[in-house]
Amino acid sequence: MHSPTVPPRHVVRPPPRRVTTAAPSWARSPPADAAGARTARRSARPAAARSRRAMAN
Known about the structure:
Blueprint: H1 9-12, H2 30-42, H3 44-56
Helix pairs in contact: 2-3
């Protein structure tokens, strides 16, 4: 039984977003993937903006 004031964990914390599925097809090789994961772990926003700019080119 759970306390009425504290909702269950899955309600409080939704599952994290999948970062690997958002990676562009040309960045799927292991070395590029590792670099992408490193930048994404620091902050997802700059990496996303960079990939969007690269896709526009």
